[in-house]
Write a structure and sequence with these properties.
The chain has helices at about 5-10, 15, 435-440, and strands at about 1-5, 20-30, 35-45, 45-55, 60-70, 75-80, 85-90, 95-100, 110-115, 125-130, 140-145, 150-155, 170-180, 185-190, 195-205, 210-215, 235-240, 245-250, 260-265, 270-275, 305-310, 315-325, 330-335, 340-350, 375-380, 385-395, 405-410, 415-420, 445-455, 465, 475, 485-490, 495-500, 505-510, 515-520, 525-535, 540-545. With about 550 residues, it is mainly beta. Among the domains are: about 250-395, no CATH class; about 470-545, Penicillin-binding protein Tp47, domain D (Immunoglobulin-like). The two termini are about 30 Å apart.
């Protein structure tokens, strides 16, 4: 029998986990005010960073665009109206989305405003779309189209003006397509008589569009779900044809708990959905949700895990898995790797469960679940969703929200991450953050933090190994387990020791007798490695899950 060396990779985590990737360069950018990064776009000679500046009194805000080179040095920066989305289209031109309040003054969140600029920041055209009621949240998602135009969407709650239809309820998703001159090609409303918000939109190979939408309040409309109708929080995939008509929609979820969809990846054999969930029933039954409550009290709301769900083109679930601990987790970006697995950039507030590398960033000893700041959590899974490695990155758990806002993938090894950090004085311990003190802006509060990482593990040399025939009769059960692990041995097998490791390689428990029953009741819920050493020198390693 042969095993792929992913188990051996995990066995060596104690050697490589804290050097799983290196930070090649990093820098901080901003002003003396509070600077919140929203996205990053790769250019021919570097990157564009987009975000928002808010003054310390929170009485005004504006958008900021920063151009940096491929090594993080600032080339220029400029301000616009508040930027909600930045997208590169053909010929090095860009579309900036901002909440427009000129088309219909008085709207609280504004309408959809688009500004097309060139690489030198010159405005080519600027237009606005919407009605007198405006957007319901001021959020926006968009993408470039293959013909040099743009498609965007946001949440609205009334028809009128440019919006021809509204399904009713609290909010629908309004989608517009414009050509390269900003003229509207078509518009459509996607939703129900309930409430919907959009998380992502992308163009598909047939010229249509794939949308990730969360239904907050169930209802009827042009996206339908016959299951999970009694739950507030249902993730949908919605497919539009090139003319904006709904071709199909499909939903997944729980019968009792909230789930949100953040994005979708189109695969060769289906789709990968990702988001956050508090569910352990319905489509998430058996996915490994880590139960946690705000402030650690069962009377408070449940906290979310990251989930990955792979489905085929017939919408059958191939696998669904949850990742996290007792705190909150949510994903920012997920990328498919060449080996069929996935790399996930997420935020975490956990110090247990799958988040075993939390000890890299010291946290307040009075850690209070649900109240600490989010830090970056990066992990990689194989093609079946099995966790391979994980690592937290950023400042400590009391610093600014240093989780990724956006990520650029260069290849399976290299990524550029746009995050945030809090101003620090020279000599302060900042862990992974090592910038020139917020661009020499003392007391500036929150600034952009951008860093480039390289995965240092040599996946090309991951091969196959033979299982030792002397331990073929060894069996570990149940798995997952709550209190006791039972180990069954072949009649002629003699065990020397049993060791249990955290996923970051720390040895947690060693047992040198009574091998048939291993007490794991004192371990927190999560993923572990168990290593059985035999008297003939052979070893057996397996992943176990503590419930």
């Amino acid at each position: 029998m042969k095993r792929y060396l992913f188990l051996i990779l995990l066995l060596f985590v104690q050697i490589i986990s804290f050097c799983q990737y290196r930070i090649d360069w990093q820098n901080c950018y901003g002003t003396i005010h509070q600077d919140y990064v929203a996205g990053i776009v790769e250019t021919n000679d570097g990157f564009l960073l987009e975000g928002t500046i808010i003054n310390t009194a929170y009485t005004w805000s504006t958008g900021i665009l920063i151009k940096i080179n491929s090594e993080g040095d600032t080339i220029w920066q400029t301000t616009y109206d508040k930027i909600l989305d930045l997208c590169q289209i053909h010929n090095s031109d860009y579309i900036i989305m901002n909440p427009d309040t000129l088309l219909y003054p008085g709207t609280h969140f504004g309408n959809i405003g688009l500004r097309k600029i060139d690489a030198d920041r010159n405005t080519i055209w600027e237009k606005a779309y919407g009605n007198e009621f405006g957007m319901t949240k001021g959020d926006f998602m968009g993408c470039a189209t293959s013909d040099g135009g743009y498609v965007g969407c946001s949440s609205y709650c009334y028809a009128g003006g440019d919006i021809s239809h509204y399904w009713g309820g609290s909010a629908d998703v309004w989608v517009i397509r414009v050509d390269n001159n900003g003229d509207m090609v078509w518009e459509t409303s996607v939703g129900t008589t309930g409430c919907e918000f959009v998380s992502s939109i992308q163009q598909t190979d047939d010229g249509g569009f794939l949308m990730a939408i969360t239904n907050i309040v169930p209802g009827t409309g042009n996206m339908m779900c016959e299951e999970h109708q009694k739950v507030n929080g249902i993730p949908y995939l919605v497919k539009l044809d090139p003319n904006g008509n709904v071709e199909w929609s499909i939903c997944y979820g729980s019968d009792h708990y909230y789930t949100n969809i953040n994005g979708v990846i189109v695969l060769e054999d289906g789709y990968l959905l990702y988001g956050e969930t508090t569910a352990d029933d319905g489509d998430f039954e058996g996915a490994g949700y880590h139960l946690g409550y705000h402030a650690g009290m069962s009377t408070h709301p449940r906290l979310s895990d990251v989930y990955l769900m792979k489905i085929d083109f017939d919408f059958n679930i191939i696998w669904c898995r949850c990742y996290g601990g007792r705190g909150d987790e949510f994903p920012t970006k997920v990328f498919q790797n060449d080996d069929g697995g996935f790399t996930v950039f997420a935020a975490t507030k956990s110090i247990d469960g799958d988040v075993q590398s939390y000890n890299r960033l010291p946290y307040d000893p009075h850690y209070y679940i649900g109240f600490v700041s989010c830090v970056s959590w990066i992990f990689r899974v194989d093609h079946n969703g099995e966790l391979l490695w994980e690592r937290v990155t950023g400042g400590n758990y009391d610093s600014a929200q240093t989780y990724p806002r956006d990520v650029i993938k260069h290849n399976d090894k290299e990524y550029t991450v746009a995050s945030q950090m809090t101003y620090y004085e020279p000599g302060w311990e900042t862990y992974d953050i090592n910038c020139p003190y917020n661009a020499n802006m003392p007391g500036s509060g929150i600034n952009f933090w951008v860093y480039h990482i390289t995965d240092t593990f040599d996946y090309d040399n991951v091969g196959e190994v033979e299982d030792n025939e002397n331990v073929v009769g060894l069996e570990i059960h149940p798995n997952p387990a709550r209190d006791i692990l039972n180990i069954s041995f072949a009649d002629d097998s003699e065990c020397q020791s049993v060791e249990i490791y955290a996923i970051d390689g720390r040895l947690l428990k060693t047992q040198i007798d009574n091998f048939d029953k291993i007490n794991i009741a004192d371990l927190t819920s999560g993923l572990y490695l168990i290593k059985v050493r035999m008297s003939d020198g052979s070893e057996f390693t397996e992943r176990i899950v503590k419930e």
